[in-house]
Amino acid sequence: MSLNKLYEQMILEHNKNPRNFKKVDPCTHSSHGHNPLCGDDYVVSIRVKDGIIDDIGFEGMGCAISKASGSLMTETLIGKPIDFVLDTKDKFINLVTEDDAVNENLGKLVVFEGVKKYPVRVKCAALVWRALEDALINTSSNNNTVTTE
Amino acid sequence: MSLNKLYEQMILEHNKNPRNFKKVDPCTHSSHGHNPLCGDDYVVSIRVKDGIIDDIGFEGMGCAISKASGSLMTETLIGKPIDFVLDTKDKFINLVTEDDAVNENLGKLVVFEGVKKYPVRVKCAALVWRALEDALINTSSNNNTVTTE
Amino acid sequence: MIQKKNNIRDDFPIFKNHPELVYLDSTATTQKPKAVINAMTAFVSDDYATINRGIYSLSYHATQKCLAARKAVQNFINAKSEKEVVFVKGTTEAINIIANSYLNHVITDSDSILLSDMEHHANIVPWQQIVSPNQIKVCNITNSGELDWDDFKKKCQNNPKLISLTHVSNVLGTINPIKELIAYAREHTDAIIVIDGAQAVGHMAVDVQDLDCDFYCFSAHKLYGPTGIGVLYGKYELLDEMTPYQTGGDMIELVSFEQSTFTKPPAKFEAGTPAIMEIMGLHACINYISTIGFKHIQEIEYSLYEQLINEVQSLKDFTIHGESNHKAAILSFSIKDIHPHDIGTIMDQEHIAIRVGHHCAQPLMKRLAVPATARISIGCYNTSEDISKCVTALKKVVDFFK
Amino acid sequence: MIQKKNNIRDDFPIFKNHPELVYLDSTATTQKPKAVINAMTAFVSDDYATINRGIYSLSYHATQKCLAARKAVQNFINAKSEKEVVFVKGTTEAINIIANSYLNHVITDSDSILLSDMEHHANIVPWQQIVSPNQIKVCNITNSGELDWDDFKKKCQNNPKLISLTHVSNVLGTINPIKELIAYAREHTDAIIVIDGAQAVGHMAVDVQDLDCDFYCFSAHKLYGPTGIGVLYGKYELLDEMTPYQTGGDMIELVSFEQSTFTKPPAKFEAGTPAIMEIMGLHACINYISTIGFKHIQEIEYSLYEQLINEVQSLKDFTIHGESNHKAAILSFSIKDIHPHDIGTIMDQEHIAIRVGHHCAQPLMKRLAVPATARISIGCYNTSEDISKCVTALKKVVDFFK
Ligand SMILES: Cc1ncc(COP(=O)(O)O)c(C=O)c1O
Ligand SMILES: Cc1ncc(COP(=O)(O)O)c(C=O)c1O
How far apart are CA A69 and CA A117, in angstroms? Predict the structure, then answer.
């Protein structure tokens, strides 16, 4: 299998120059995503206004896959309604885990399809999305942590 | 190997009719010998007078080997001086454990020679002797226990 | 139906290598089929790597195989989730974990626990480390070797904090009606219920959800599997509440010298490099048993047991310990005026391996008023010829000491 | 001398079955030679029985074999008596036993214990379960990755109750001068001294009497032996003083519901059916290592390590963690702007198994100020070709992310 299927050019580029690599302040939602196994560690912060993602950022450190995933996630979701966000999140998790995933409407995110063939790296791609999910769903608390291992 | 080497006729007979199967009372020395593995359990009691075994008995329960050993031990030692007793004890332990044991001066006790070929049964033959040793050597206390396993 | 030829026997190399061997000590430990030996050999020869932590394929696949084994155990005992399956060293460790990580934290001086008179030391001594003697209540057994229902009901009135019972007695062979006992205890107490399944899992289908026990423990080595591995099943909520047992690598999330945080069950209870090879062996023995099926295993074992019971009738001064109507193929006995130790030695001369001693059940020996017993126990590889040889040898024993 | 061909490799079936595999994760766990696999297979196929309790020959011989294995371990580490050799699950269990059955009974609130900044979680977390964070003193390490002698001396002034140090760091590769450290500690403190030997025993001769440690712990699976078995060495007087750890069968003398009494070490610490098959594997791996000899093992490992160190010089932005003059053949490293996880994946594509992550040493990662490292570790079966392939792959990694 070619490594380029995993590390698509776009992933390498977003790893080098991550977009929205910042803390959103003030934010309405945030969560800390951590993979104790490899030390990937990010905070995802979001400002929701009128059901729309007004701003979203991520900050922290981790591997190329997780960083590019944060970059492309934030780029994709900014300005989108919550419904779309949660739906995209489900589709993304499917994309990187299910063999028969439909990848329509995922836009640039399809570059992560190759991750599926690298099962130990699935958690890297999913980490920021798990943190996003946690931030939006556990709205009450503002300082959550999710752990993937 | 023939079982008769282990269960010599004399052993079977002493098992059925153990000699000195009693508590010596009053006694000067006694010890409790116990093998938790198989439940063999005897008290050896001795009265020493002027350096001579005035009386010796054993009581309790256990297998044929251990019971015959108690019977033949007491029969052999009664009326003998302590030096002889301890020397015989060493010789007996040798007899049942060492391949090149010399079995001179052991009299009837040589019937236990076959035990050597049944290593799991050595402890059975030795138990009352260990109790005897303990009784005579730990003279201060009058109620010892030795355990073989 | 008497088992004339047993094809299963051919699966076990030990009988090829010792054609004369009559192995009747399966209650102590079972022999291993080729399928189990080969699974472990293949794994260490071809797929060996550490699990959980490696990013390379070899390690990933080993991790997946361990997960598959955990799922196989889950199915085998019908647990709700594979997360309820903790890999441990064996039954003894499993019970020690419950005593230390559960009971130790919930028991107060006024609480009691309930055991029975037929427990193995592994289901007695660990509890004694946590509670004082007067907190341990003991359910009586009847003269036929069954749990005394009346006494059980009476002792449930104390509302014990924990009830721990063996599924099958390793001495008497009694199969306790644990489903009914648990149902009664659930209705009349708030007890946490532990089942020592060491002697059950190799002989009958176990469904922990149907039984509704809180914990269930067993060892692979009595299940035609390897040594060094066993299972602690626990309801997830309970496992989750419990404190970790051993600590170290692989069961922590974050470690600093100030504080460490732990992962979730089952990892929380699996500190250190696991018994990876043995986990493969456990999976293989479950597959092996499932292929034969408990129906077939029971047919073999019960027919041989029946043969045994019939043939020993002719022996003089022969006392059987344990005559429940629900028995596993285990026969403990005494012969008048012949010590079990002597029986064992003579049987061994005839290449018949039976167990003599207290069977790690000294309180039961006291109850039976014997220092020790001899025990014949049957596995799925035994044959009618084994039983005949055994009874012939027993006759020799009786004649010898006559 | 550079190892062109390594005959030892032929002893390991995994390399026959995966000719492409470059296994450089021996610090996590070692592969198994045929001699070890065969010893276990032969035992379970031909000689398997329970130990200690059986009166029949098969059981007697298995018991004798376990005793022989214990004596082999005694000789291997030069313990005074085989009674000082306790069979455990692995290093993690060994340290847990010391924490629970020793430290727990002697520590008071005003006492401290001394660890170091390079310890594995297995040598941190078990102590944290017994003492509070402020009782744990931590010896610093220098920038080259050695224990800081001055800090060690300073921290000995507290007269710690216990000092527990790793013999060889699983991340830095540093071989600590434990003989000198122990001598110093003996002179200036009353501490009980524990050595985590997990990374040492497979690579150098260990003499516990010469070292004069109180406890020494290791796992067979890092010694070309099986999983599920390891050793707790302890001075007999200490083992004898300690309370039992797990309780159950085989470690008791007498059991009643009122009271139970325990046997002597090592049996006191070996409750339940032991890992019998694994004990045979442990014996076999000790024999295997002894046949090759540590001199030869070290020649191989050090020559390959030298080759590795020389070849990685050419890599850009390559940082080595741990540059002691006394190192085992372990190389932890970082490459600037490339996460270890990505390194690991790319290496795996080239069939090179290296470890990436925190290596169960999070406090050390903090000290090194890295989230994780990549680690190459060498075993006696590695070859010069393995090293070359590894370095070529590392170059690929650097190019790929350029
Ligand atoms: C230095 C050190 N100590 C302790 C351990 C724990 O050993 P185990 O997982 O075999 O219990 C390891 C291995 O992971 C180690 O490298
Ligand atoms: C009923 C029962 N419980 C517990 C055990 C202990 O099992 P293990 O020795 O495998 O830990 C045994 C076996 O000896 C047993 O028969």
Answer: 16
Report the domain count for chain B: 1
Helix axes A119-137 and A64-77, enclosed angle (nearest 10): 40
* Ligand 2 pocket mutation, candidates C25, C29, C92, criterion most atoms within 8 A of CB: C92
CATH code where residue A18 lies: 3.90.1010.10
Please check whether residue D137 is in contact with residue D165, taking contact to mean a CB–CB distance below 8 angstroms. no
Q: Is residue A10 part of a domain?
A: yes
CATH number at residue D142: 3.40.640.10
**Domain end marker among D245, D262, D291:** D291
Task: Indicate which residue's Cα is closest to atom 7 of ligand 2.
Answer: C91
Q: How far apart are CA D26 and CA D355, in angstroms?
A: 9
The sign of the dihedral angle between the CA atoms of C89, C90, C93, C99 is positive
Specify if D3 maps to a domain. no
Q: Which residues of D touch A7 (CB under 8 A)?
A: 342, 400
Q: In angstroms, what separates the C-alpha of D105 from chain A's closest C-alpha?
A: 33
Q: Which helix (H) or strand (E) holds C278?
A: helix C276-292
Exposed, middle or buried: residue B79 (CB in 10 Å: 0-12, 13-18, 19+)? exposed
Tokens matching residue A59:
């900050």
CATH number at residue C20: 3.90.1150.10
Would you say residue D269 lies in a domain? yes
Q: Min CA distance, B96 vs chain C (Å)? A: 16
Q: Are residues C202 and C315 in the same domain?
A: no
Using a 10 angstrom Cβ sphere, with 0-12 exposed, 13-18 middle and 19 or more buried, the burial of residue B140 is exposed
Residue A148 falls within a domain, yes or no? no
In this structure, is residue D390 part of a structural domain?
Answer: yes
Boundary-marking domain end, from D273, D291, D309? D291
DSSP letters, B9-25, are HHHHHHHHS-TT-S--S
Same domain, C316 and C227: no
D193 Cα to chain A: minimum distance (Å): 31
By most ligand atoms within 8 Å of CB, the mutation choice from D30, D92, D171 for ligand 1 is D92
Quote the number of domains for chain D: 2
Backbone phi, then psi, for C190, in 5-degree steps?
A: -110, 20
CB within 8 Å: A36 and C254: yes
Please give the distance, rounded to the nearest whole angstrom, from the Cα atom of residue C216 to the centre of ligand 2: 13
Q: Which of the ligands is closest to the CA of residue C196?
A: 2
CA distances from residue B16 to B129, C339, C357, C402, D43 in whole angstroms, order as listed: 20, 12, 21, 10, 41
Collapsing DSSP states into helix, strand and coil, what is residue C246? coil
| D277: closest chain C residue by CA | C227
Angle between the A119-137 and C57-77 helix axes, to the nearest 10 degrees?
A: 70
**Could you list the residue range(s) of the whole structural domain that residue C346 is in?**
9-24+293-401
Instruction: Compute the distance between CA of residue D386 and CA of residue D383 in angstroms, rounded to an integer.
Output: 5
3-class DSSP state for residue B133?
helix
Nearest CB neighbour to C253, from listed A119, A120, A147: A147
Write out chain C's pLDDT in tens, 402 residues: 444 557 999 999 999 999 999 999 999 999 999 999 999 999 999 999 999 877 899 999 999 999 999 999 999 999 999 999 999 999 999 999 999 999 999 999 999 999 999 999 999 999 999 999 999 999 999 999 999 999 999 999 999 999 999 999 999 999 999 999 999 999 999 999 999 999 999 999 999 999 999 999 999 999 999 999 999 999 999 999 999 999 998 888 888 888 888 889 999 999 999 999 999 999 999 999 999 999 999 999 999 999 999 999 999 999 999 999 999 999 999 999 999 999 999 999 999 999 999 999 999 999 999 989 999 999 999 999 999 999 999 999 999 988
Query: What domain range includes position A45?
Result: 3-138
ipTM: 0.93
Regarding the beta carbon of D197 and ligand 1, being less than 6 Å apart is answered no
